[in-house]
Amino acid sequence: MQIKTQLGKLDLRVPLNVLIAEQRANGVQFLPITLSHIFALEGMPRHHGDPFDRILIAQANAEHMALVSRDRAFGDYLVDVIW
């Protein structure tokens, strides 16, 4: 999110550290990237060229979780997307 904000691809209403604190208070959990997430990239089609987004997709699949994004390229993958 910080990188997307710096690139001008994401406009946050508050600074990222404040947003994260608010969401943690709401019970949202933030997952670290683990080796199992890295290994989930193997064999994944390269519909999306952004390596950061590809690891998010792999992470969501490995954890059986939905991904929150408005990136339309995520629709080319077998991942549940919210937004």
What does this 3D model show about the protein?
It is built from four helices and two strands. The protein has 83 residues and is mostly helical. It folds into two domains: 1-30, no CATH class; 31-83, no CATH class. A two-stranded parallel sheet has the order 1-2. The protein starts with a helix and ends with a strand. The mean pLDDT is 90.
User: Over the alpha carbons, how many angstroms does the gyration radius reach?
Assistant: 13 Å
Give the distance, in angstroms, between the N- and C-terminal Cα atoms.
15 Å
Largest beta-sheet details: 2 strands, parallel
- Beta-strand level of the residues, as a percent range? under 5%
What's the number of helices? 4
Question: What does the average pLDDT come to?
Answer: 90
Spans of at least 5 consecutive residues with low confidence: none
Sequence of secondary-structure elements: HHHHEE
The number of distinct structural domains comes to: 2
